[in-house]
Amino acid sequence: MNDRIRVAEVRLVGPAGEQVGIVRVEDALRLAQDADLDLVEVAPDARPPVVKIMDYGKYKYEADMKAREARRNQANTVLKEIRFRLKIDPHDYGTKVGHIERFLKGGDKVKVMIQFRGREQSRPEMGIRLLNRLSEDVAEFGFVESTPKQDGRNMVMVIAPVKRKAEQRNEARRAAASQPRAAAPAAEQTAA
User: Fold this and answer.
1) Please, where in the chain does CATH 3.30.110.10 lie?
2) Which ranges in the chain belong to alpha helices (H)?
3) Which residues contact residue 42 at a Cβ distance below 8 angstroms, ignoring those fewer than 6 apart?
4) Architecture of domain 79-165 in this structure
5) Half-sphere exposure of 31 (CA within 13 A, CB side)
6) Taking Cα atoms as reference points, which of 57, 55, 44 lies closest to residue 11?
7) Confidence band of 113 (pLDDT split at 50, 70, 90)
8) Domain 2-56 has CATH 3.40.50.300
9) Rounded distance between C-alpha atoms, residue 31 and residue 9, angstroms
10) What is the mean pLDDT of residues 105-113?
């Protein structure tokens, strides 16, 4: 930046993005000072290096804002885990399906695990049947990412959400913003 550029000639880009051409560093610095801006090296590996006349403080600020916005929109997908037994009561099954739907609506993946005990281990087809039924019940909110696999005493399947977590969050924000704020007018009426 500015006086720290240690080459004889540079390819200069003007403040509006126009190509000025190859000039001496002293001339480029003088042009930048006349415009009350900084001379910033944008491509040091090029031959000759590319420099641009810009407001460096504004450039740093805008880069920080872009990075902050990218971090805000980034969503970490969490892998939730639900455990089943092969002989599960219909009411318990419905409760666990409700939990899985809530996780998928939130944009998280769900690892469904069936635990086999004793003689149940000799009947893996019953576990596959239960997991297929489960995948059909939550098909509206998610899809099977990894098919059922036997892993020792357990059978595991992963269900991924239909919508990504960032999409879910943005949709929830829009829904909250579109809701009328009924509490504020009621508070104003009681104050009057």
Assistant:
1) 79-165
2) 25-34, 56-73, 90-105, 124-137, 165-178, 183-191
3) 13, 50, 51, 52
4) 2-Layer Sandwich (3.30)
5) 19
6) 44
7) very high
8) no
9) 14
10) 88
